[in-house]
Amino acid sequence: MSDKLPTNGGYVAAAYLIFLGLLLVYFAVMATRAARLERELSEVNRLVEEAAEGTAADPAAPDAEPVNAGGES
Amino acid sequence: MPTSRKLYGTHLRALSILTAVVLTGGFALAAFYAPIEPDQGFSQKIFYLHVPLAIVALCGFIFGAVCGIQYLRTSDPRHDLRSYTAIHQSLIFCAGALVTGSIWAKAAWGTWWVWDEPTLVSFLIVFLLYATYQPLRFSIEDPEKQSRYASVFAIVAGAFVPLNFLAVRLANPLIHPRVLNTAGGNLPGDMKVAFYTCLVGMALLFVTLWKYEMSAKHNRAQLRALKRKLGGPDAAALRGRSAAPRVSAS
């Protein structure tokens, strides 16, 4: 097997690398959004805990449970 | 708590694995199984990436139009979100097809672009047409009007896609080949296997990414609704004007 790439191999590699790059950028954007979602989830958890503390202080109020942050969609 | 909402994340892991396997398999077939084309040589391998990208992008635009029709019929915001996500993703696939096509043109014809070629120019027109979709949405403040006008745009532009395809087919090609036709095309059998595997893989990639987007958007909407119920700040109200549809938590 030759060590050299076949003719125009550079163009073929460039095309497939650009596709891979596009995919990676897309995944990076998705990861950023997932991180933002996680931040919002922890904020909701904090609100739920605050509500639960309020419920403990006031027994007449309905119960509230924290949101499961480890759940999978 | 039971919920009746559609879960876009269902079977996402299996779908992701299937996509990775089929797409990698397709590219492996293209690299090692499909023969080297005698005229163009090794650069023809870009065909297995460029053509599936272009076909899936155009199909995505048509899917966006179908969802637009559904939205106008039902006024269900979920259809608008489906249309928005499909068009948004197709535009990225379209950009990929243009870039890879340009690289292939340079390798095969010695030039990055040929302005006289109907296939190339018409594809660029479709890309530029859909590039106005996001600015159009952003320019309309009222969410209901935004969804309605965007759906009308998606339908009209979606109808343009097959018409444009037909017009290009009827035109005389200069240098861009017509590989696929109703007679079965002129691809040798080995190339056909690799090409259709890549096409299926690319279609699966589109569906997987679309489902990821839909799942993320729905989860965020659910979370914001929950936050509002708990008395937290309304993030949707704080973010101001947006091109993305407002998603209901239900």
Describe this protein with a few key phrases.
heterodimer; A: 73 residues; mainly alpha; 67% helix; rod-shaped; B: 250 residues; 8 helices; globular
Short description:
The complex is a heterodimer of chains A (about 70) and B (about 250). Chain A is an all-alpha fold.
Tell me the layout of helices and strands.
The complex is a heterodimer of chains A (73) and B (250).
Chain A: H1 9-57
Chain B: H1 12-33, H2 47-74, H3 77-109, H4 118-131, H5 133-139, H6 143-170, H7 189-229, H8 235-238
Describe the protein's architecture and organization:
The complex is a heterodimer of chains A (about 70) and B (about 250). Chain A is mainly alpha-helical. Chain A has 1 helix and no strands. Chain B is mainly α. Chain B is about 70% helix and about 0% strand. Chain B has 8 helices and no strands.
User: Low-confidence parts of chain B, pLDDT < 50 over ≥5 residues?
Assistant: none
Mean pLDDT level of chain B: 86
Radius of gyration of chain A: 25 Å
Could you give a short account of the major beta sheet of chain A? none
What is the rounded distance between the termini of chain B?
13 Å
Q: What is the number of E strands of chain A?
A: 0
The value of Rg of chain B in angstroms is: 21 Å
**Most extensive protein-chain contact, per-chain counts:** A-B, 28 and 38 residues
Decide which structural class fits the backbone of chain A.
mainly alpha
Helix content of chain A: 55-70%
Strand content of chain B: under 5%
Shape of chain B: globular
The SSE string of chain A, one letter per element, is H
Q: How many helical stretches of chain B? A: 8
Specify the number of helices of chain A: 1
Percentage of residues in helical conformation of chain B: over 70%
Q: What is the H-and-E element order of chain B?
A: HHHHHHHH
User: Which term fits the overall shape of chain A?
Assistant: rod-shaped
Total number of strands of chain B: 0
